[in-house]
Amino acid sequence: MFELAERLRKLPPYLFAELDEMKAKKESEGVNVIDFGVGDPDLPTPKHVVEAMKKAVEKVENQKYPSYAGKYEFREAVSNFYRRRKGVEVEPDSVIALIGSKEGIAHLPLAFVESGDYVIYTEPGYPVYHSSAIMAGGIPYELPLKEENGFLPDLDSIPDEVARKAKIMFLNYPNNPTTAVAEMDFIKEAVDFCIDNKIILAHDAAYSEIGFDYRPRSFLEYENAFECVIEFGSLSKTYNMTGWRIAYALGNEDAVKGLLKVKTNVDSGVFNAVQEAGMAALNGSDDVIEENNAIYRERRDRLVDGLKELGFKVEKPKATFYVWLRVDMPSMEFAKQLLDKAGVLVTPGVGFGKSGEGYVRFALTRDVAVIDEALRRMEGVDIV
Ligand SMILES: Cc1ncc(COP(=O)(O)O)c(C=O)c1O
């Protein structure tokens, strides 16, 4: 009876909803599906964070409306975390709390994009860059990520007309789904490009702490970055807190203020108790981050070594908890055959954008015994 607005009709179906349907069908046929699809950590939130939450819910002042920008102490904890982990000085006043980084990414274009403005982002990529551009009435401009360029975009390929009319460029390193990382030379190039063209560089750093013998870079390590960069960080993957919905944005003052103005009109902040739990995580020992990374490293090694034994050509990723595997058939076909013949679910790369075609993504969110079982099941399947 009610027709959806054009902006919603323009959006593709949410990628993971389709995958869930495929999986449910298989399970209804009695198959115990091994799911490497969704990037949701299987590991628990650290105990001291859960304990901090229990105490925080009891406090009456935490049961009231939170502040829009977030508690000062939470923003200070983010500031201290950046000093400790990234060597970057950020004033707590340049930090705001978010209800997950997805929320901040989705709202940012509403603050800055007028109808007819471009929003530049890379593909394959997190689907929310595209949908947030559409919801704000912007024109999406996709930059392909190619293996031969280390999955970094070619900024010189952006037409002048697009650069002139672009308001936001989303970049994401360590990258989901390609697992690529960005070094300082690329970061400087991207920041300088955005300053020259008066574009907000929105850096999605959701995987900022997941690296193996590698320390992922904050874009704010480059001193000019504060002229154009808003960086999104999240406790979701760093501390196994996807369900808690807590993240932060920081960096360029105008960008952060603009996002906060949207949020002030849409939501009423993050539950204070969740912010206190977030403070316990950010101010706590970094050992929990290293322990997580050790677990992902073992899984990564087991999966990549096993895939190589099966005949795939694949490298060990330096960062993120994904493995991005090149396959010899259309990615959807590969995923369907793997699900059908082995009961193993992976995400077809094409779901992240057209340049993801020919790849599938494994999330390392299953333990080594399950990875071993998946590899065993794949042995007999003729899709290598
Ligand atoms: C690249 C990327 N950005 C952002 C997010 C959103 O994370 P959250 O909203 O839990 O902070 C995700 C989650 O999977 C992601 O993969």
TrEMBL record:
Alphabetized UniProt keyword annotations: Aminotransferase, Transferase
Cofactor entry: pyridoxal 5'-phosphate
Keyword Transferase part of the UniProt annotation: yes
Chain ranges of the Aminotransferase class I/classII large domain: 32-377
GO terms for MF: L,L-diaminopimelate aminotransferase activity
KW Transferase (keyword) present: yes
Pfam families registered for this protein in UniProt: Aminotran_1_2
Transmembrane segments: none
Protein EC: 2.6.1.-
PROSITE patterns according to UniProt: AA_TRANSFER_CLASS_1 (PS00105)
Assigned protein family: Belongs to the class-I pyridoxal-phosphate-dependent aminotransferase family.
Record protein name field: Aminotransferase
Source organism (scientific name): Geoglobus acetivorans
Upper taxonomic lineage: Archaea, Methanobacteriati, Methanobacteriota, Archaeoglobi, Archaeoglobales
